[in-house]
Amino acid sequence: MSNQAVAYTSTQNAYEYPARSEAPVLMHHWVDTVPVASYWHRDAVKATLQLAALPHNWDTYGSLPPTAIAIKGAIALLAHIAKLGFDDLPSPNVVPVPGGGVQFEWLVDTRELELEIRPDGSVDFLKSQAGEPIEEGQVSFGGRAQLQSLLSWLAALAL
Amino acid sequence: MTELKRPLPAFENPPVIETVLGVQFAPLESFTIPCFGLYWQRIRGRYPVQETQPALTRILEDFGTRLPVRPPLGIELVSQPEVRCWFIDASSTELIQVQRDRFIRNWRKVGDGDIYPRYERLKPQFEHDWAVFCAFLREFELGSPEVNQCEVTYINHFEIGRELDAYGEAHKVIRLLSSEARSEFLPGPEIVRINTTYMMADKKGRLHVELQPVIRRHDAREMLQLTLTARGRPASSRPKDVLEWFDMGHEWIVRGFTDLTTEAMHRLWRRTS
Predict the structure, then answer these.
(1) Engineering a disulfide at B28: which of A130, B143, B212, B220 sits with its beta carbon 3.0 to 4.6 angstroms away?
(2) Helix (H, G, I), strand (E, B), or coil: what is residue B260?
(3) A75 contacts in chain B (CB < 8 Å)
(4) What is the pTM of this model?
(5) Are the C-beta atoms of A84 and A147 separated by less than 8 Å?
């Protein structure tokens, strides 16, 4: 076993958002585009990409713009969420985070969900009810069930 | 069916933004990680930038009872990790992709001033780079590629604000979605996606057509992306047969693109034949 490596025939670093019934595939294309799943997804992707153009000191406190890793992670997270089938989700508020992160904020009635993509690409979540935090933690990219649970809680009142 | 005697349609200003010519072959077992660096030394003058990417999965057009499928997600123990190396030219418009079972050459449009170089230039460029790669393999006794698949891909962008005004207006570009085919009840579509597959003549391959809404990363512009991929097995691994397959794949893509798109767009792109 010492001379062997483990190879994955597909990876988490999917370069294309697939149709819902398909596994992620890697493409040999070079052109860099993001497939659009729905209009809320489109709006969120555009807002995220536009954050990359923020200048240094965008918040007047010396903050750097979101890192390339945070932008890429945010786009990938949106693809994961879109793949879960929440077509009627309201489009999130997309904001930069001082230090180089990106944050998605959803507010549905009294429920608020924040997903923060840190400069290193890791993701934290915060659930709030009527302005009071009720749960927080880290989101793993392999945690499809975790994302499903968070968004189902949010969407329960949006339906 | 293909009509080799009729000249291929041509456009003065086609919406193509990327082309791909590639071959897949039986894995070269002796092509280990250091070989990527040795090969890069051969081409570094022309392709000075290198990147490492995850490897592509193998795919073969199957002419049995089912459409081609990719291997399912899985885990396997291997003697070395599979990688794909990118070798990029100084203008960042030309790319060679290499892995143990693939050799791919891409051209892409980067700026508005970049003009599609035409297949008549892309084909000999592939032929030259492929010959250099094969000579490298011979010199280091790494094996001779047994080509089992050729692929030609053309990617086109229809921009919101140029060819159409919204994702749902694909009928302005795609003939089979023309407004005459609409029903009396349904409103205009919100989003249109198309996936079709055509069998090429004599089962020499398949033409895959995909239309999907996308956003371009570097400027967040919205567009419809039309990808045509011709894929199939050449008569042999000899360069002559690989290039002949490319010619056929290219013809299917050009004639297919012309059939699929509307006359109004042909005028916009200035069809010349």
Answers:
(1) B143
(2) helix
(3) 217
(4) 0.86
(5) yes
